[in-house]
Design goal:
eight-stranded parallel sheet, 27 helices, TIM Barrel, 2 domains, binds glutamine, binds zinc ion, 21 strands, single chain, five-stranded parallel sheet
Length: 738
């Protein structure tokens, strides 16, 4: 019988204990022991006990973290940039995570293609790594006290650590400096009597892994010399062209993801090294669905033919799914029956290993009866024609028919402050303390105020402010069919920030208007054009847990069709401009550049499908929260949006230069100030930004707006900032008129 293993487990606490404790600690309301012992260790223990009770043979321990596991390894190897040197202990750790007065934090960025964010190690010539493994070894000992020989320490591999770092020194040199420390760590773990260590090296699935080959081979030759059994773990994609040399590395076990990419095809093409054990990651750690036994058993049967020594495993750490579906009592049973969060996935791993899969099909049969295909949605998809994806007139012909505004038209990205008053109103409505009509009247008052402020400041294109939205995906999901919502389904986005993604379980359609009421209210308060405000199909898809038995593009098209109807309704309500936000378009890019084209083709098509029937007179805007455009500019152009607003204030001129070099033909609103900071930008600062815009772009192409939505800011930050933005624009207009 194959043994079972895990590669990491949720670490936020079943009742979000870590969030509460961290935030109380930061506010000085909780002491160090209460954070570290009463909460952190307790939450970890609970995770270990659950995994042991599920009968997991080798429990991965080491992804447990107060804030982020990559940050932990920066601390353990003393990769501490000089600006943090004046601090130590937890104060330093949290300063690296969140910044401290006058000390910017490490860069935070997405962990591969997940919605988890890690803190990038920063390594320059000032850094001399050294070993501080006390906390890690203490964690392993604590786990051994509970789990005994089941503990498999998880170590972030040296290649991935460096590959993810902001590295301004030579990769090979830094690797050589780190390897003796890694060996020291393995020696210490050997002394603790562990049977095996998991070396997590997800960077080996990236498109450029082949370029790292000499480093990887050097590293694992040295680490293998310690004489401790090593399990080389990768996930999130297949090994690609690097498969043959990676499976030849001197390790005893190699764990691969069989839920993403195509590692099976690689094994079939190149065979499996018989002396090695295969860790078969067949239970999808990033979806919320139960396995479909027929599929998974066939896969396991095939794998066994190649790799007689095999273990069963989740595809990655289970931190990407919530704790347990059993708690979601409000969900229909037929749906709950096919959901598997972390606890259910442990059971699945175990059952697949023991072969006790009898009855695993039954919930699926029930589910399909409960959530049948929607014939109307299916018919619409089947009827799609190429012209559905193309606007009626090309840009040059439709632009003259659209709103005409002054040079450097001013606008914002959509949201305005989500004040405590807004949140209180929503809470009272959710508790049933006020009626729908009272709630709407409250929202309308916020819309009125928001529109009044913009009008008063003289902005050219206004927004309603999004006060009715908790979140730009959840709000839409709640009004569409096909989405379900959990009560406890939190997963960590970063640090103490958790999200609760909706589950897309059935065909998506739009039984009711989504934003028309709020648009009408806003437009009724002003003569200026109000922008309709929608979240795009790719973003709704990427920030949800979609079904895995329906291709992603189909789900995106279904959402797009719903948005398309909303656009028609907004037009009928008088909208002359509509923004369709796609902040998640870029983050959905596959890990291997070779797969980018296929993704971008359907992702851009989904956007085009959403806006394809907009009248030529309707100005379509889109917004994206990043500036790394260079490599996807053709896709951005193919969106065929009339106006696109993008993040820019935190970057130099690169993005403007890239747009100019590319000859981007349509209108662009590069953000003029960073909304993540409470600092009010000065008029001179914004004029400086505008001057750099006109150096690169034609003046008629330029819109003026902040970097992103303003919902996290306070009114007394927003109003002076926009005032300065308007003053800067007035100055620029005057200069150009002269
Ligand atoms: N319209 C949204 C807002 O302003 C866009 C948010 C985003 O890009 N993440 O909040
Ligand atoms: Zn944004």
């Amino acid at each position: 019988m194959p043994i079972t293993q895990t590669l990491g487990y949720p670490r936020i606490g079943k009742n979000r204990e870590m969030k509460r404790a961290l935030e109380a600690y930061w506010q000085g309301k909780l002491d160090r022991d209460a954070l570290l012992v009463d909460t952190f260790l307790e939450v970890m223990h609970e995770g270990w006990r659950t995994q042991a009770a599920a009968g997991i043979d080798l429990i991965g321990v080491g992804m447990e973290s107060l804030y982020d596991h990559v940050l932990d390894w920066s601390a353990r190897f003393d990769l501490i940039p000089p600006r943090f040197k004046s601090l130590d202990g937890l104060a330093r750790y949290f300063a690296m995570a969140r910044g401290a007065p006058g000390i910017p934090a490490l860069d935070m960025t997405k962990w591969f293609d997940t919605n988890y964010h890690y803190l990038a190690p920063e390594i320059d010539a000032s850094i001399t790594p050294s070993a501080n493994f006390d906390d890690f070894l203490a964690l392993i000992r604590a786990a051994q006290a509970v789990l005994g020989a089941c503990v498999a320490p998880i170590v972030l591999g040296p290649v991935t650590l460096l590959r993810l770092a902001r590295l301004s020194v030579d990769f090979g040199e830094m690797l050589s400096a780190l390897l003796p420390l890694y060996r020291q760590l393995l020696d210490a773990l050997k002394a603790l009597g562990v049977a095996e260590v998991q070396m997590h090296e997800p960077a080996l699935v990236l498109g450029d892994a082949a370029a790292l080959r000499p480093h990887v081979e050097q590293a694992y030759a040295e680490l293998a010399a310690v004489g401790l059994s090593l399990n080389l773990v990768t996930y999130f994609d297949d090994l690609g062209e690097s498969y043959p040399w990676i499976v030849a590395l001197p390790v005893d076990v190699i764990s691969l993801d069989f839920t993403r990419g195509d590692n099976l095809a690689l094994i079939q093409a190149h065979g499996w090294p018989q002396e090695k054990t295969l860790g078969a990651g067949v239970v999808d750690a990033r979806s919320v669905w139960r396995v479909r036994p027929a599929e998974t058993l066939t896969l396991l049967e095939t794998l066994r033919g190649y790799a007689p020594q095999m273990r069963i495993s989740p595809s990655a750490s289970l931190q990407f799914v919530p704790y347990t579906a059993a708690r979601e009592k409000a969900l229909p049973e037929a749906l709950r029956g096919v959901l598997a969060f972390a606890e259910e996935k442990l059971v699945e791993v175990r059952r697949l290993a023991t072969g006790d899969t009898w009855g695993m099909d039954a919930p699926w049969a029930e589910f399909y009866a409960f959530a049948p295909a929607d014939p109307a949605v299916q018919a619409r998809l089947e009827a799609l024609q190429p012209e559905d994806f193309t606007r009626v007139l090309p840009y040059t012909e439709r632009r003259p028919r659209q709103v005409q505004l002054p040079l450097f038209p001013t606008t914002t990205i959509g949201s305005f402050p989500q004040t405590s008053e807004v949140r209180r109103l929503r809470a009272r409505f959710n508790k049933g303390e006020i009626s729908q009509a009272e709630y709407e009247a409250g929202i309308d008052a916020f819309i009125g105020y928001t529109v009044g402020v913009q009008d008063g400041l003289g902005l050219d294109m206004l927004v309603h402010g999004e006060s009715e939205r908790t979140d730009m995906v959840e709000y839409f999901a709640q009004k569409l069919t096909g989405f379900a919502f959990t009560q406890h389904g939190w997963v960590q986005s970063f640090g103490s920030r958790y999200v609760r993604p909706p589950i897309i379980y059935a065909d998506v359609s739009r039984p009711q208007p989504l934003t028309v009421r709020e648009f009408r209210v806003a437009q009724s308060y002003t003569q200026k054009p109000v922008k309709g405000m929608l979240t795009g199909p790719v973003t709704i898809l990427n920030w949800s847990y979609p079904r895995t038995d329906v291709p992603r593009y189909i789900i995106a098209y279904q959402i797009a069709l719903a948005l398309r109807d909303e656009i028609t309704a907004l037009e009928a309500a008088g909208a002359r401009a509509i923004q369709v936000d796609e902040p998640a378009l870029r983050e959905g890019l596959p890990l291997k550049p070779a797969r980018w084209d296929a993704y971008l083709t359907w992702a851009v098509d989904a956007f085009r499908l959403a806006v394809g029937r907009a009248a030529p007179e309707t100005q379509i805007h889109t917004h994206m929260c990043y500036s790394e455009f260079q490599d996807i500019l053709p896709a951005i152009e193919r969106l065929d949006a009339d106006v696109i607003s993008i993040e820019n204030a935190r970057s130099g001129d690169e993005m403007l230069r890239a747009l100019a070099e590319y000859g981007y033909p349509r209108e662009v609103g590069p953000g003029v100030y960073d909304i993540h900071s409470p600092v009010v930008p000065s008029v001179a600062f914004i004029v400086g930004k505008l001057e750099s815009f006109v150096r690169h772009l034609r003046p008629e192409q330029i819109w003026v707006n902040p970097d992103c939505g303003l919902k996290t800011r306070a009114w007394d930050e927003v109003i002076p900032a926009l005032q300065n933005m308007m003053e800067a624009v007035r100055q620029m207009r005057r200069t150009l008129e002269r």
